[in-house]
Amino acid sequence: MSTNTIDNSRKVTTRRLIEMKHRGEKISMLTAYDYSSAKIIDEAGMDVILVGDSASNVMAGNVTTLPITLDQMIYHAKSVMKATKRALVVVDLPFGSYQGNSKEALASAIRIMKESHAEAVKMEGGAEIRESVERILSAGIPVMGHLGLTPQSINKFGTYNVRAREQEEADKLIADARLLEEIGCFAIVLEKIPAQLAGEVARQLSIPVIGIGAGGKVDGQVLVMHDMLGINKGFSPRFLRRYADLAGIMNTAIQNYIKDVKSGDFPSPEESY
Ligand code: KIV
């Protein structure tokens, strides 16, 4: 195979994502928290699967991402890893498992890597978590950064509105992004910030910048699977494109099943032993 040919069956690695940025190939990323979904997503050709702490919202029904535990993240990550052959699997370090104590941060990241066999972790924040990021990187664990709207800080922000509209916050975000690149992160997620700012960060950095609500001038996009498939219909920010109405499809199928059970139509002789 010539070196210019893109091989879609090849395992995605952190190094490959950086190569993709450099040749201008956009990176696709989607969340998964369970075996069956991860298998479908991986077989569809996704580049990165994120075992996001959004599992706290869409799997467990919590209002924020804060309650999910390290044990629960490891449970989800193990299920996803059993199904994934090609995509790079990144796991969120949950709230409380890395802030403020870099030794604890490393212990949390090591548990994720050892117990789930995932390939990288994601952490929210910039300069304030530098020591934790550096300690995890020093153990050979790849780290993806996450800046902008960082949902683990929702109680500090007070709203899920667009971040970094003001110059001061935009300047800090650029400085944080450059810092994360400098200390060795392999990629950064930018959530819900102005498209122009996100494009500027992507232009300044040589590592991939993956956006969610950050416009199209970045190196890739990430969405939450339950939102884009229309399973979770209570969430409709402007940045969300819905690719299906699975809640509607499931509702119709389930109502038909109930009807068939009630009427005695199911099971038929052919469906019986
Ligand atoms: O937890 C998550 O799903 C995320 C994405 C929104 C980037 O962090």
Features:
disordered N terminus, globular, alpha/beta, binds 3-methyl-2-oxobutanoic acid, eight-stranded parallel beta barrel, 273 residues
Strand content: 5-15%
Bound ions, cofactors and other small molecules, one mention each: 3-methyl-2-oxobutanoic acid
Unreliable residue runs: 1-5
Number of strands: 8
Given the C-alpha coordinates, what overall shape results?
A: globular
Strand order of the largest sheet: 1-2-3-4-5-6-7-8
Helix segment count? Answer: 11
Q: Average pLDDT across residues?
A: 96
Major sheet summary line: 8 strands, parallel, barrel
The helix-and-strand class reads alpha/beta
Fraction of helical residues: 40-55%
Task: Describe the protein.
- By secondary structure, the chain is an alpha/beta fold.
- It has 11 helices and 8 strands.
- It has helices at residues 14-22, 35-44, 55-58, 70-83, 102-116, 130-138, 154-157, 167-183, 195-204, 225-228, 246-263; strands at residues 27-31, 48-51, 88-92, 120-124, 143-148, 187-191, 209-212, 220-223.
- An 8-stranded parallel β-barrel has the order 1-2-3-4-5-6-7-8, surrounded by 7 helices.
- The model is unreliable at 1-5 (pLDDT under 50).
